[in-house]
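Appendix B. Raw example, untouched.
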Amino acid sequence: QLRLVESGGGLVQPGGSLRLSCTASDVTLDEYAIGWFRQAPGKEREGVSCISSGGGSTFTADSVKGRFTISRDNTKNMVYLEMNSLKPDDTAVYYCNARYLVYSTWGQGTQVTVSS
């Protein structure tokens, strides 16, 4: 069973950067499309960015376009979300999601807090 693990969250000042990572311990991710989502307190979960299984196709939400970049290294079984020019509005729990056909699973999330 696929179990996703996110890491890299933390507290950062406005304008700072973080890189989130998503991996799986017992299953290779190279057949899965991976998405990053976030959920701020009192708000619905929203999609941030996603990448195809081979990495050749990506999508990024307008709210973070130009600041966030998704990438993957299938040789390391890792998917990354590079976040630059962070704003307080980016504060949320960030989740990765793996999807293959009708199968979908979520990680436990990692907290990102942008505050001075």
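End of appendix B.
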